[in-house]
Amino acid sequence: MTQVHTAASLIGLWRAHLADNRRRSLHTVRAYIATAERLTEFLAEHWGEQANAARLSRASQADLRAYLAARRGDGLANRSAARELSAIRAFLGFAASQSGNDAAPPRLKGPRLKRSLPRPIAPDDIMALGDAIAGRNGPVWVQARDWAVLLLLYGAGLRISEATGLTGDVLPVGETLRIIGKGGKPRVVPVLPQLREALTHYAALVPFPLDRDKPLFRGTRGGPLSPALVRRAMMNARRLLGLPEDATPHALRHSFATHLLAGGADLRSLQELLGHASLSSTQIYTQVDAAHLLDVYENAHPRA
Fold first, then answer.
1. Domain count of the chain?
2. Cβ(161)–Cβ(215) below 8 Å
3. Is 182 a catalytic residue?
4. Which position among 182, 185, 212, 239 bears the catalytic label?
5. 114 catalytic per annotation
6. CA distance linking residue 150 with residue 154, whole number of Å
7. What is the CATH number of the domain that holds 253?
8. Is the pTM of this model over 0.85?
């Protein structure tokens, strides 16, 4: 016989499921639990009865619309509403599994979100960032490490997690790197001579053994290099140079894509290099390039 969980006991199970089974971050767990608590409190009042697992598994589209309307009245913005709806769907699916109900949560179209365009960093500014990062005080091998990571982001278009996730088996560096991207999807990226030189130079200086199955990039104590340290180094460098706050490590990947497209790369090739599952994710760079060209025209053309 299936146990009937109260809202409180269900949320307790949901918390454990997120933290232990799904390995969600503490921040995500807190956000999902807060949503579940708001939802069950609202629905109990809305229905005039307890919002236990069995009742939650029968929630309708109209119920969810009423909840979101109430949240909108509290000033919830579109992007936050989309995140909240995602958390609701996950929670209701969990409630259904706990009640023995195989029905899927009601489908509800989320708010339309304005897709923001990534802002590329000018090549001269990227080189200045590299000089600032590599030229700061500290061990020479750390400077070599940070320069190599920066070149991986801009010269190969890697995500920061992909760069810091490389292991010693990439050595010796050849003409390509095999990258495991999002969802475990592999791809091969070419290695420019400057990038090969930077990686080889770092490998020669790092004071820790670079075993094939161990992280390539190390912190000062020998552990894996944290992406947070890369972001912090980039933040300090951009502030030193007076660059905008959106000059982030991920903006280097955007710059890689935008500059390749401006140089004549086709979208399919760019999709492969970036590891995008869908071409629609790559097509946003056509808008970035057009916006960049318009800026150049407006700033430089005498009749603009």
1. 2
2. no
3. yes
4. 182
5. no
6. 6
7. 1.10.443.10
8. no
